[in-house]
Design a protein that fits this description.
binds zinc ion, binds guanosine-5'-monophosphate, globular
């Protein structure tokens, strides 16, 4: 989608701080980090929300990439959080599916 911010990161029109890339997945650092490590993991193909994810292989790719990045960032042993905001009440602001990988500090529960 030409008017989608995260699609522009996939095409290279906007260049984020990339930490991981493979055929189907791109991951980059969040511009407004909410933890010492805050990375967004996205499908390269445009999927607007979690509701629209219907490809089991892509779902697996996203989750496995996220845990590989958590290990790469040294978060695996201490722990980390993976979050997906879906639609308005889920707090989604960018309508291209993304997993938030958060770590490097103690997380609290319940989330806001
Ligand atoms: P959402 O609220 O949709 O789950 O999360 C959107 C995330 O995208 C936010 O954490 C926000 O900081 C991040 N974000 C928004 N614009 C940009 C940008 O231009 N570059 C990067 N790297 N992250 C962005
Ligand atoms: Zn998109």
């Amino acid at each position: 989608m030409t008017d989608c911010l995260f699609c522009k990161m996939v095409t290279g029109a906007i260049k984020p701080d990339v930490v991981f890339e493979d055929a189907n997945v791109l991951a980059f650092r969040d511009i407004n980090p909410q933890a010492p490590v805050h990375i967004l993991v996205i499908p390269k193909q445009h999927v607007a929300t979690l509701n629209d994810l219907d490809n089991p292989a892509l779902a697996g790719d996203l989750v496995l990439a996220t845990l590989a990045i958590a290990k790469q960032e040294g978060l695996a042993e201490d722990g980390y959080r993976v979050n997906i905001n879906c639609n308005k009440k889920g707090g989604q602001e960018v309508y291209h599916l993304h997993l938030h990988l958060l770590g490097g500090r103690q997380m609290t529960w319940p989330p806001g």
